[in-house]
Amino acid sequence: MVLELFPEPRAGRRRTPASRTGREPAASRPIARLALDVPLVHLDRPFDYVVPAELDAAAVPGCRVRARFAGRLVDGYLLDRVASSEHEGTLAFVEKVVSPEPVLTPEVARLARAVADRYAGTLADVLRLAVPPRHARAEAATRPVDLGLRDAVDDRTTSLSPRSTAEEWGAYQGGVEFLAALRRGEPARAVLTVLPGEDWPARLAEAVASTIHSGRGAVLVVPDARDLERLESALATAIGADVFVALHNALGPAERYRRFLRASRGDVRVVVGTRAAAFAPVRGLGLVAIWDDGDDLHAEPRAPYPHALQVLLTRSQLEGAGALVAAGSRSVEAQLLVQTRWAQEVTAPRDAVRARAPAVTPVGDDIDRARDEAAATARLPSLAWRTARDTLAGGAPVLVQVPRRGYVPSVSCVECHTPARCGRCAGPLELRSAHAVAACRWCGRPSADFACPRCGGRRLRASIVGSGRTAEELGRAFPGVAVRTSGRDSILSTVEEGPALVVATPGAEPVAAGGYGAVLLLDTWALLTRADLRATEEALRRWLAAATLARPASSGGRVVVVADGALAPVQALLRWDPAGLAARELAERRELGFPPAARMASVTGPAAAVADLLALAELPEGAVTLGPVPVGRPQPSESEPEERVLVRVANRSAGPALASALHAAAGVRSARKSEGTVRVQVDPRELW
DNA sequence: TCAATCCGTATC
DNA sequence: ATACGGATTGAC
User: Fold this and answer.
1) Which stretches in chain A have pLDDT values below 50?
2) Is the CB of A40 within 7 Å of strand C?
3) Which nucleotide is closest to A43, CA to C1'?
4) Domain check: are A329 and A465 in the same one?
């Protein structure tokens, strides 16, 4: 088509600055395809502009630009420079190149588009997560290192001895082969379940060392700052402190941008960090890795709510990079990767697991008040109290894991504590008020005729979850023993050897030098009766995270779990078999039509708007809607009550169609300026 | 018949 | 948001 670059100013139409100044288009590839930062869903696509000759040199793919869009100056990224445009109408000029720094690489742009599509979100939203805000001073101050220096760095990192890495991985079936494939630059994919007490940061660092040996780069994501610190120090040992950068939310804007630039400019080929680092622009990516993918922190709380695991897997697929999903436990998502043969299972043989694991004993909540006055004070079962006492007497630290209070109240069988599920859609039941009939959280159906599938019981009770057990209470049971606490407010990374009672909430357990002599897992009902799909998997994940810090049974390490030994997650803990539990959970999810076997999305907003969106959406065949149900969270006063509908497709393969149908419907509503904001969420948190 | 205004739609 | 085109309305 013919480019109309200099439209005659029409009567009544204000002349643009471009035509007034008579700007000329750049001589070659004058068209810029821009991704503009506009929030409207129906405008989620590239727009073509003309690059004026004076911006020719600066307007490079990936740079930040400003352009006039619908009469306003908006920010955007230059995706590409091309020779001609498909656009029928006249094209406007790019107004300004904010900086010629190419911050959005083609690979990351493609990844962001794929993630937006997967989560029914907009590219602009994903780019906000992927590219940190510009910091002009940081950009000017850090010039790219010269090429000579970079070569020197590469020489040093590729001269690592291969022997140092293979040995520890040799404890795992398929481990050595996985590392060897990375060294050859092959896109090997593994789900690694680490041994009890494993020095996992060292193992991840070895995988990275193998990858950079092949001349490729790596991206590693961990849940939180504490894990990141451990990984950083392992990496500093394995590959050197100056060949990687760490990205996390606690960094200030200048430092964050400085480190981001080190990666995007190719000064470093390895980036580690928390979830946003999954998007880091690493050149020649050879490996993506995630530690403990079951941790909630991997889920981004901002739209479109992508999960770091999904981002990394997508990235591995798009860039032909290897993938490592490593954890002490196993999520159903990781299990799905194994069962679909997308990734190779890398686990240790059973006898190696047994040799390293502590002895695990389940105990009922039997407090023998007559015999153990001190135990009764702390509401500790007798065996738990005696185990702790003996361990402390032996001079070793004791870890006590106590769940945080405040989980969503759920409903379970009075007789056997099995969480109650809806008879129609198998969603979790909940009680909205004390006298109400329990109703399904997903589809809203009241459950008047409950019958427990496990024991046939017909009565329900609201589980009282969360714990009021305090460190002082526990300390009183062990007079004279130092009590240390680690929790939300102050998290300890490590504790020294020697007798001490360490009380921690899940995820905040300090590592003990030499290992804990004993680990007590208390108030397990709080974890097991959570009203979400992951309750079982999550309970085991948290128990294993604490239990893995204990010494092996051969060195006296013991774990006491206060729970019914017949329950599946407790069994899995006793046998140290997270893969077995994950397989069982996945089979159950398949049977019930739950994610990740099926795919679900939630649509939340004012009732009329939710109904409107669903009426517009051309849902894929077989899609089922559940609800609407009123949204539980407190409403800001003055606003309409909100509702939520879940949409489920039984087959994961219909997932892209589901996301695109909801995105398209949201686009139509956005174009029409329909009343009410509707939030669409794929893989919604409510299900976790 | 024409111009002022309204409304829907595209925004490069 | 704002800008445009087509439809609509109202006065001549």
Assistant:
1) 1-20, 145-163, 406-407, 465-467
2) yes
3) B11
4) no
